[in-house]
Structures are given as C-alpha cells and as structure tokens.
C-alpha cells in the first residue's frame, strides 16, 4: 500500500510538473493569454460582463473564477461583474426538464447575455453538447467566446474567438492546466483594471 501510494504520488506529480513547466514556456499560450486579457478588459471597461460555463470539475472552475472576479484575487478593489451559469439549480432543473440538458447554459446565455459580453466556456473534451450550444448562443448574440479545452480541442476549437488548448489528453491534467490559466487570467484582469501603485 505505502509503496503504491509513493509510486502513484510521484508519477502523478511528475506528470503535473512536466505539463505546467511546458505550458509556462509556451509562447503561443502567452499570446492567447494576452488576447484573452484584452478581450475581457475591453468588455469590462465597456460595462459588459463575463459568463462562465462547464460541467463537473469545469463547473467548479466556472464558479471559482467568477468568484475571484466578483470578490477579490490578490488584493482589495471593487467587484467585477461575472456570473457562473452552473449555480442556480432552479434554472438548471427547469431548463433541463423542459428543454433538455443540452440547453442548460445556452438558455441562460440567451436570457442574460448581451453583445460584447464574454462567455468563458470550459470543457476538457471540447465536445460537451451543453457547452457547445452555449458557445453557439453566445456567437448569435455577438458575444466574445474564450474557451478552455484539451489538446484535441474538440468541437470547441473552431467556435471560440480565443481557445486555450492544454497540451494533454488526460482529463485531470487538462483541468490542472485550466486552473493555472484561469487563475492567471483573473490576476491579469485585476492588475489591468485596478493597477496597484506599488
Ligand atoms: O472532474 C472531473 C474529472 O476530473 C469530472 O467531473 C468531469 O469534469 C466530468 O466528467 C465532465 O462531465 C467532463 O466534461 P468535459 O470536460 O468533457 O466537458
Ligand atoms: Zn475532477
């Protein structure tokens, strides 16, 4: 048992470290991050908002990142408008029951989204139908779409304005990559909109 834990511990951490190290030096990811920050900051400075959607672990990311913006990330400053579309069980169960689970996010995008808002769409496969439908609804509304997915990109890859593809095919590794990128996006938005004097 102890050996098994040690072996698995080291193997899993090694994979995570390798992935995050490769990502940290990936010039294409740096460019995509600059673009995503610009798109988000432009929307927020124009009085627009960020909407977040994803399933399972990515639903947790959606809520986590919306929380960073509405509350605070590194320091105190006014709240920024961000909404996770994963949290209202009455809306999700009503839309799921009446129209189907594929529409639980798209319906909220149609109801809440405005041209110039940003949809942050998170899917490790890039193929979850409710996430893809939300992207299509956002495009129809002339919103900006920032996607987070895995190395294959799935259907999402062609549909997003900016698409972060974490270079891994393993769901947990892709999620770890998303977590690092999402935190960085929140930190850079905060720093750009509320620069600190120090
Ligand atoms: O957190 C995990 C796996 O680490 C799971 O809950 C995972 O998020 C779920 O299976 C999702 O339904 C996967 O959907 P997606 O990332 O392909 O859109
Ligand atoms: Zn998970």
Structural notes for this entry:
The protein has helices at 2-24, 27-45, 57-70, 89-98, 106-112, 129-140, 171-193, and strands at 50-54, 82-84, 118-122, 144-149, 162-165. The protein is an alpha/beta fold. It has a single domain (26-193), classed as Glucose-6-phosphate isomerase like protein, domain 1 (Rossmann fold), CATH 3.40.50.10490. The protein has a 5-stranded parallel beta sheet, with helices on both faces. Helix 6 (129-140) links the parallel strand 3 (118-122) and strand 4 (144-149). The longest helix is centred in the N-terminal third of the chain and has 23 residues, at 2-24. The model has no long low-confidence stretch (mean pLDDT 97). The structure holds D-altro-hept-2-ulose 7-phosphate and zinc ion. D-altro-hept-2-ulose 7-phosphate binds at residues 55-58, 123-125, 128, 131, 171-172, 175.
Write the layout of secondary structure elements.
Layout: H1 2-24, H2 27-45, E1 50-54, H3 57-70, E2 82-84, H4 89-98, H5 106-112, E3 118-122, H6 129-140, E4 144-149, E5 162-165, H7 171-193
Parallel strand pairs: 1-2, 1-3, 3-4, 4-5
Helix pairs in contact: 1-7, 2-7, 3-7, 5-6
This protein binds D-altro-hept-2-ulose 7-phosphate and zinc ion.
In which order are the strands of the major sheet placed? 2-1-3-4-5
Distance between the termini: 50 Å
N-to-C series of helices and strands = HHEHEHHEHEEH
Task: Flag low-confidence runs.
Answer: none
Count of beta strands: 5
Question: How many helix segments?
Answer: 7
Mean pLDDT: 97
Major beta sheet summary: 5 strands, parallel
Strand content: 5-15%
The portion of residues assigned to helices is: 40-55%
Helix- and strand-based class? alpha/beta
CATH topology: Rossmann fold
Shape: globular
Give the CATH class.
Alpha Beta
